[in-house]
Batch of 4 targets.
Target 1
Amino acid sequence: MLRRWTRRKQREMTARAQSEVTGETLFLAVVVLSVSVFGIAALGTVAVDRPTLVELSETSGDNEYIELSHAGGQSLENESVRIILQDETSSVTLSLTDGEILNQSVQDRFSAGTVWRWDDWESTPLTGAVTVRVLTDDTILLEATKPRPT
C-alpha cells in the first residue's frame, strides 16, 4: 500500500514540477515585458536632434531684389514653394515661376545650388519693411525682414 501511495505521490510531484516551470516562465515573460515597456517609455522622451531638411538663405542686393539660395538638404518641387511678401497692410504671394531661377541642376526642382531671384517691386503695393516667408505645404522654411527699396 505504501508503494502505491509513493508512486502516486511521485507522479503528482512530477506534474507539479512542470507547472512550476511554466509559472516561472510566465513570470519571466511578464518581467521582461515590463522592463521593455518602461525602457521604451523612458527612451521615447529623449529629445533627438532632427537634421535640417532644407537650408535656405535670403539675400538682398542693395534692397533691389530678393534672392533665395538652396544651400542643401532635400530638393523641393518648384510648384510647392510659395514666397509670401508682407508689410503692415498688405501681402503678395509669389511662386518660383514669378522670378528667375539660376543654376537649376534638376528640372522642375528647387535643389541644392539653385538660386531664385525676384526684383519686380513696382508691381506690388508693399511699403516700408517687408517680411519674406518661404513656405512649402504650410511649413515655413525661411522668414526674414528687409526694407523695401525706394
Note: The two ends are 116 Å apart (CA to CA).
Target 2
Amino acid sequence: MFTLSVKQIQDTSKDKDKMRLLGITIPDEKRLEIGLTALYGIGRSRAQEILNKANISHGSQAKDLSTEQENEIRKIIEGMKLEGDLKREVAGNIKRLKDIKSYRGVRHQRGLPVRGQRTKTNSRTRRGNVRKTMGTGRRAAEKK
C-alpha cells in the first residue's frame, strides 16, 4: 500500500488548477493580459479586447480566476480563429500564392523577403547568413 505526503497532494492539486485554453496552459504567475498571448493568434490588443468583453481586470492572474470567469473567456475565444485553424489558413494562403506563381509566391518559394525589403544588404534572417558576394577583397591581397 502506498501513501501520499501532503506535498505530493498539493502538487497534484496545482496541476488541476492551471488554466488551459485550446490545449495550451496559460501561465499562472503572469498577468492575464500577457498570459493570453501564449495562444497563437492572440496579441496584446486582442487579449485586452477579450478581457474587456469578459469584464475581467487586465492585471488579474490566471490562478485567481473563478470557473465562471474562465468559462466566459473560453466562450469568447470559441468564436475566434486561433492556433491550428489560423496556422492552416496562413499556410493555405501562402500555398495559393505559390500555385498561381504570383510575385509574392515566388519570393516565398525562393526564401527571399516578401514585402519589398532590399536584398543587396540585410535580409540575413530570410536568406540565412550566406554571403554570396566577394566582399572587400582583403583576403585575396593577403594571400599574394
Note: Residues 6-14 have pLDDT under 50 and may be disordered.
Target 3
Amino acid sequence: MVDASDAAFIALTVVSLGGAIMALEAKEIIYGAVGLAGSFFGVASLFFLLDSPFVAVFQITVYVGAVAVLVLFTVMLVREGRWFRDSMGPAARMAAVVTVAALVVSLVSSFIAAGLSTTGEQATAPNFVDIGQLLTGQYAPVLEILALVLAASVLGALTLAKVDPTGEGAAGPKTQATDGGERS
C-alpha cells in the first residue's frame, strides 16, 4: 500500500520530470523557462519532503527566484526572433544525445566511485546555525564567487537587453556609399 509520503514523492517526481521535459521540448524559449522553473520548484519540494528545509529554501531562492527569472527577463527584453523557434538540426540533436550520454556516464561513475552505498546515517541533523557557520566560514569564498557569477549574468542580461532605439551605433548613423557598401 502506498502511504502519503510515497504518493507525495511520486507526485513531486512527476512535477520535476514534467517541468524538465517541458523545458527541453518547448517550441518557444519562454515556455521552456517556465518549465525549468517548475522543475526547480519540484526539486525544492522534494527537499522539503526529505526534511531538508534549508536546502529547499536555498533551491527556491537561487534557482527558481534568480536563474529562471533571469532567463525569463533576458528573453523578454531581448526579443530576438531566432530564439523563439526550434532551430535544432539533425547534427545538433546528435551532439545533444552524445553530450547527455557522456554526462550520464560521468555522473554514474562518480556516484559509484564516491562509495555512497557504504555511508551511514548521521547521528544528529545539522541545524541552521551550523549550516550558517559553514557557509560563512570554510565555504565563504565559494559563495563570493557564486555571487560574482550571478552579478555577471545580470550585467550580461542588461547588456543583451540594451536596445538602441535610433538604430545608430557608436560610430554614428550609417550612410550608403555609391558602390553599394556601407560606410560611417
Note: Residues 169-175 have pLDDT under 50 and may be disordered.
Target 4
Amino acid sequence: MEKTKQNPLKIITNAGYSKKVARLLNQQSNFGTMDHPDITVQHKSDCGDVLILYLKLDKQKITDARYEYIGCRGLEAAAAGLTEMIKGKTLQEADKINFLDVLTYLEEIPPSKYECIHLALNTLKKGTQEFNKEVIQQ
C-alpha cells in the first residue's frame, strides 16, 4: 500500500481546529524562549500539560509574548492565540481576557481542548499576579 503525504494544515482542520488555528500552529511565530523577559511563569494543569509564558514589558504594557509547552496541540493553539491577543495590552487589560475571548479569537477548537484555554489563561493570571506582588514589595 502506498503512503500519501497529507497537508499538515488539513490534518489540523480535520481534527476540529479552525483554519486560523492551523495557520497559527504552522507559523509558530511566538513559540520559543525570550532573552531577558520581565515575566516568566510556568503552570501545570491537572492533565500534566505544562505552559511557560515569557512576557516583555514597557511601563506595564506587553510588548512581546512568547511561550513553550509540553502537551497537546490544543495547548499550543491556546498559547499561540493568547500570546497574539495580549501583545500591546497592559497587564490589567490582559488580565481581563477570558475563556470566551480566546475561544472567539481562535474561532474553533475541539470542545475536548477547552481545558487548554483555561490552562493558558491561568498561566497568564499567575504571571501577572506574581509580577504585581513584586512591584508592590519594591
Note: The chain has one domain: 30-137.
